[in-house]
Amino acid sequence: MSDRRTFAIISHPDAGKTTLTEKLLLTGGAIHLAGEVKARGQARRARSDWMKIEQQRGISVTSSVMTFEREGITFNLLDTPGHEDFSEDTYRTLTAVDSAIMVIDAAKGIEPQTRKLFEVCRLRSVPIITFVNKVDREGRPVFELLDEIADMLALDVSPQAYPVGMGGEFEGVLDFATGCVARPEGPSKEFTGTRDCDPAIPERFAEEIELAQIGYPEFDLEAYRNGDLTPVYFGSALKNFGVTELIEAIAKYAPPPRPQPAGDEQIAPDHNEVTGFIFKVQANMDPNHRDRIAFMRQVSGTFKRGMKLTPSGLGKPVAIHSPILFFAQDREVADTAEPGDIIGIPNHGTLRVGDTLSEKNAIRFTGLPNFAPEILRRVALVDPTKTKQLRKALDDLSEEGVIQVFYPEIGGQWIIGVVGQLQLDVLISRLSAEYKVEARLEASPFATARWIKGDEKAMNEFEKFNLSNLAKDRDGDLVFMAKSPWDVNYQQEKNPDLTFSATKER
């Protein structure tokens, strides 16, 4: 079990996350040619962004899973959307990892989305390695960046490398562990393998480097794994600087599979049965086969192909005949899997996000919430004869967590809920590309939604007077559709016996 490293990469959009993902795969031997990220109008794409809208916009909008091996270690890399409009997908993905790499742009420092994602990691004590990217370009002073990470994130920082100059003065990256400088070469100033292990450091940088080594805490493995300290690496994903050091740090320092919360107990990797949870469902990864893949994070036990596991949402055992290990869209059937592995389970709607899978059906993993939508819209069909196809599409996409669907108690028009505007663009794009359904979005009278809970009498009383403002979600749970936040507060005060919740535990 100790040879598994399951990690995610988190960053603000455009910090270079997808490029770093690609270079890690290249260094890990999982791909042999870097297809560069779309730039300056050329449709060149990284392998992990396979959806049509991702290729058009040059951003990741789904989480991809990539498994590769290097020097006896199996790496499970989860690439997450950087854009804040997909924070739900990213949040759920972070429940499935044991550590994370935080990518920071050397010119911009800590940006809002980086900070949000870091807070999610902190909630789960996920240890973080920091990679300051784009040091071959003009950037902020190194000490300013290090101090910002320490102050804004309340973390101890321990630099493990140092850029010898930035932008026009860039002369390479010094690795503190070996004392060698990775040197830029050729007209494009890339790292092609030349390391100077007896470097003559220009005097103007030597003093800074000495200060960086003695002025910050030494690396402490226990503090890192507790989420109190972050080792900081510097490099350029595009030019290959720092990528090898980063992957070696994950192998050496990142924790093996950790116990996962199941109510009041923690299920350890050596638990005596196979258990796991579904943190993502993806439809139509292969458009030719209309497939639906549920992504399971294995928590304990040794999984064998053909085993019967019971999904908590179904209650009866299901044989897992074709479990899949992933490399983005490429896949292979897995005969066995260990704790920490991410396996794909093809299914036709039986598995949903938040389901626990186990041999004895006695465990429920917790911590995968639904968030109250911040944007609500009605869906109108261009061709009214396609109602059935629309329902199927909305069911699929809500199972994936791309959108939430609410069915009003009065009136027939379904309401779509999302956290961010870009999710609506993805919805319209995927309805057209994958389901051949042309639709448009119309304004909804509601601004937000809250899940309602309480005793039967109080619920019945509330329903009697608020039927026009009530809907059911796809699980059949009652939802109060509010016209404004004031509306929510008013109803909470008026109905103290009811709970109006902005999150729903799966």
Low-confidence stretches: 35-51, 53-63
Q: Which range does the strand content fall in?
A: 25-35%
* Helix residue percentage: 25-40%
Number of strands: 33
Radius of gyration: 24 Å
Content-based structural category: alpha+beta
Query: Count of helical segments?
Result: 12
CATH class of the largest domain reads Alpha Beta
Straight-line N-to-C gap:
28 Å
Q: Biggest sheet, in brief?
A: 8 strands, antiparallel
Average pLDDT metric: 84
CATH superfamily name of the largest domain?
P-loop containing nucleotide triphosphate hydrolases
Architecture (CATH level 2) name of the largest domain: 3-Layer(aba) Sandwich
Q: Which fold name fills CATH's third level, the topology of the largest domain? A: Rossmann fold
Number of domains: 3
Query: What does the overall shape look like?
Result: globular
Kindly report the spatial arrangement of strands forming the biggest sheet. 28-25-27-26-30-31-29-32
